Every structure is written in structure tokens, then in C-alpha cells.
Amino acid sequence: MPNVLLVDDDPETGAWLSEFVKAEGFTIAVADSLRSARIQLTRSMPDVVLTDLMLPDGLGMELMEEIGTGGSTEVVVITGHASVESAIDALRGGATDYLVKPVDIERLRGVLQRIPKVEHFREEIGELRNELRKLGRFGHILGSSPPMHRLYDQLSRVAPTSASVLLIGESGSGKEVVAQTIHDLSRRKRQPFLPLNCGAVSPQLVESELFGHEKGSFTGADRQHHGFFERANRGTLFLDEVTEMRPDLQVKLLRVLETGSFMRVGTNEPIATDVRLIAATNRSPEKAVAEGKLREDLYHRLNVFPIHLPPLRERGTDIELLAEHFLAELNEQEHTNKRFSSDAIAALYAHNWPGNVRELKNYVHRAYILADEVIEPEIAAESFVQKSHSSVLTIRVGTTLEEVNRRVMEATLLECGNVKRKAAEMLGISLKTLYNRLAVYQAEKGEIPAGDETEGDEADESAQDERERYPDRSPAE
Fold first, then answer.
1. Count of H helices and E strands in the chain?
2. Tens digits of per-residue pLDDT, 86-97?
3. Are 74 and 115 in contact (CB under 8 A)?
4. Among 7-21, 345-359, 387-401, 411-425, whose mean pLDDT is lowest?
5. Fewest CB within 10 angstroms: 202, 317, 341, 349, which?
6. Which residues pair with 281 in a beta bridge?
7. What domains appear along the chain, each with residue ranges and CATH number?
8. How far, in whole angstroms, is CA 390 from its chain's centroid?
9. Strands 58-59, 74-79: pairing kind
């Protein structure tokens, strides 16, 4: 039977909490100070510690030193309304949840029902991290670059807790996928995960979508409607683009987070809810606060555990990994065997991907439709090649120098619009050397035999340069 250590110096609170915890199927030990709690911890390590934040001889969070953050014991902080910021600090310090006095019975019951399963989730996350090394995948997320490994470490730490999470990343960087992964690795994974894009819903309807409404509460409200906070009870609510929410609704959102209750539009009756909130924004939250787009008090409440998602351009070889993954999915769906050419892969690395993973996925889909068997860089080139002004090329560590030279040369040609004289100047080599190397690369692909065929090509290139410099001049001139 799981065991709870209750640490509270108020005898009345301790008495009723003890009875409730016992009724939920736990054994319980009680302490009224840090000193007494530490003595209890030396005797046996409980499954759950319910501790008041303010104790006669210190802060309840000081017990984390004895408990540690790597074990299976969960710490739930109990605090008064005036100490919500302290509770947020407690969550950052390793607590898995917090309750506001007077303690809501349903919220406490939800906490106790989830607690015994925490060790299972930590083992599951550990297994996922091991699989990551083999497959480059973590939950729903794909990627094996160093920035993604740092992201996975953050997710593995925050997912088993009930802390609010603020995802910060550019559009298309995968914020909803990350939110879904946090939910699926949490104790709430069997409960609903509901996403709501605050910027995609009419400002007049956001309140009704979040909190629901009663029949007849406004024109068109012909029936009672349960909002996201009601439908996501004991689950996770993902609010994307939270800075697009009206300031008056931000106040109501803050109240729900602090009290665990809300009211439907058209009624004054509070409804209890136990929802983990994950918010996201594609702008700097600090700048949004300064511009009045995000209330500062709500920002601090959401910013318990901020996570910055890396843009695709900073993820190195994940670009190729994701492109191959998206293409493999399409091949499986359509029973085909299309592939990227080496030139197409070089083009992927040469692009800056301002639309991030979403842009890459859309490009692969378009290129797949247009290609016969092999996807070449000129297929669907208008999608990104002509827009690309990037001079950054990512090379795997351990790539041979010969392959590096080939990749740099091909990427430079793409950057120059395939004008070879300009590419040779950028590379610091003669035009003849460029042609010779390209001939070798083409011969390796079986396209043409290696050989010195530069004289005619140089003449063609010179003619092309002349046409580019003097577009109005006739051929005779």
C-alpha cells in the first residue's frame, strides 16, 4: 500500500487531510515541522510528501534536499493564495504539483490517483531515451541533432510532473507535436489532450470555447456547451498562440490556473477542473509583455517551465532525416519507391527553411507528386531554391574530404543559380577546375564519362555570361 508523509503545523488541517488520505487507500505519517519530517524520512521514504510551504522552522521545499529529484518520491506543495509565486518556485525546484488552501478535495484526489504511477512513467521515459540513440526519435518527435537532445532532456524532466509549460518557437517548429509528447509521457496520458489555437478562433468565441456557455446566454446559444476546461478535466489543454488572447480573457485564464475552477458563460456557478496547461507562442514572451499583448502575471504563471524549440535551420542533419522520413511515409502510403538525388539533398541543406518543419514537409509532398522516380533539386524548385539566400551548409562530422568538396561545390552552384563562372569565383578555383571536378562527379553517377570537355562548355558559359550581362543585345552583336 503506498505511503504518504503529511507535513503541516495546523492540527485541524492535518487531521482532516489524514482522514481523507486514508480513505483513498494510503497509509500516512504526520509531521508538524521540518525537523519532525526529516526524522520520518530517515525511517522510510514515502511515495508522496504533502507539505505545507510555510513551516515553523523553514520552507517545506527544503525537504527536497533529503528526498532528491531522481527517486520515485513525489512532493506536492500546499500553499495559501498569497504564496502562488512561491509555489511556482517550488515546481521549478522539483515539486510535481501544488495545491492552494483551502485544498480542493477533487484536485487532491486527482493528485493521489496519479502518484503511484510516476515510477512507471520515469521508466518509460528512460526506455524512450535509450531508443532515441538508435532511432533518432522521442515520442512523436523526430531528430537526433544536439539541439534536439537538449530538448529531449527537458521533456523527460517535465513530462512526469504537473508543472505548466511554455513552449517558445517559430511557426512550424512543432510546438503542438511537443505538447502532445509531453501529454503522452505524463500521468494524464489516458485522459484527453485538447489543442486550441487562440489566434484561429474569433475573439468573441474564445471565452465560450474555453469555459463553455449555458443555453440562452447569448444570441445563438441554443444549447449548453461544455468548454475545453471542462472536457479536458484530468487531462492536458494546449493553448497555442496564447498571446493572441484578449486581456480580459487572460485574467480569467489566470484565475482558473490559481483556483482550479471556472464558470461557464451565463452562470455564476463555479466548476472544478484539474487540467495541466501547456501554452505556446511564436513570439518573444518578454516582448509580448512589454507590448501589452500578454499580462505579466499570467506570463509568470505560465513560465514555470519554459522550453525553447530550435528552428529547423539550427538542427543540422535533422533536415535530411526529416525529409527522408516524410518521403518514406508517402512511399508507404502510395506503394512507391521514390528517392532524393544527392543534388536534391544538397539543395535541402542550402535552404534556410523559414517555415521550419511544416515547410519541409510541404515541400517533400509537392516534390513527391512532381517526381517520377528520383527527386532532383529543380523539381518544385520555386518552393525554396529561388527564395534561398543562405550560405550555410551543414556537414556531418566524419564526412570524407572528397564528399565535403562535392557537397560545397554543388551547394555553391545552387546558390549561384547554376552559373558556373560565378560559382568558380566564389570557390576560388578556375572555371576549368570546376568543370573537371563536375565531370568526375557526373562520371561517378554514371551520367557521362570522365574527361576534359571544358572547352566547348567554357564557350557556352561565356556566351551565357554575355547574355546575363547584356540582356538587350542580339546574338549577332
1. 20, 18
2. 666 777 777 878
3. yes
4. 387-401
5. 202
6. 168
7. 3-103 (3.40.50.2300), 120-309 (3.40.50.300), 311-415 (1.10.8.60), 416-469 (no CATH)
8. 25
9. unpaired
